[in-house]
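Morning. Coffee machine broken again, so started the prediction first thing and wrote up yesterday's gels while waiting. Chain of 332 residues, entered below exactly as on the submission form.
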Amino acid sequence: MSLVEHLKELRRRLLIALVAIGVGTVLGYLWYDVSILGTPSLGDILKEPYCQLPPESRFGGSDGECRLLATSPFEMFMLRLKVGFMVGLVLSAPVWLGQIWGFITPGLKKNEKRWTRSFASIATLLFAFGAVLAYFVLSFGLEFLLTIGDNAQIAALNGTEYFSFALALLFIFGVSFEVPLITAMLNIVGILPYQVLKEKRRIIIMVLFLFAAFITPGQDPVSMVILAVSLCLMMEIATQFARVNDRRRAKKAGLSPDAFFTDDLDDEEGSHISAAAPLGSDGGLESPTPVAPTRPVNASRKERIRDDSGRAPGEGTGYGNSYGSGDLDDIL
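Came back before lunch.
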């Protein structure tokens, strides 16, 4: 295909993806306030963590109602449209991901297609798992944030603030759970070996806790600790995956895994190779390369350059091994 044909195909696939997102947004907008097939409405699902707070911690909660405030005429409409768009992206994901896949597939090899398909499937599952975990964490984070000063104040959240907080937490948890997958993929392509992950394990744990402290929208300790601990556990799984993968790679290459992994050593202890290791055996050191046979050294230039008398330059001139002026002229 020419460049113009590629651009036309890209335009066609973008239009299909946008139409799918638009249809998904309409469905999400309708689902926000309507129960479908006996399931709760989308607004009730997202509002449930807030409704789990004690009644005295919610504005107007003394009569048992659970509602959010609206402080502008168009706030409810824009909020419903925003939530519907987010849901539309999720509902239409198979379509626009399929269009992306269809556009890049002709440029991939067979093994690259297999790895890309596996990567996309695992990434989707990890994102969904992180979002579900964030949904259950949301109620604990809200309870801490909204009851920390309830003796002097009462929380009165509007819909925009609450849903922005909830959707940001869901999105951050989902994206953060992709970090271990990226680590495993870097190990598969040979960029990030297991030994580096092992040596930097403490630094990685510290960075993950700092990342969780800054990335959580409410900066509450509950969400931060749960996110950090979850990431540390998943990073440890990715580290062990890198260990198994590097051992498999070394075995496939006919190398000894013990030459690459020093699990029985301390962090500051260097590894060594045993002097008694059999040479030339599988997993051992290779046999030394024999020295090439000697070759006769060519005659020096001094011996090859002779004057008409058959003497080498400098012979009989009193200069020993030095060249005479006439001989030097002949050489030049």
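The longest helix spans residues 110-146. Going to sketch it on the whiteboard this afternoon.
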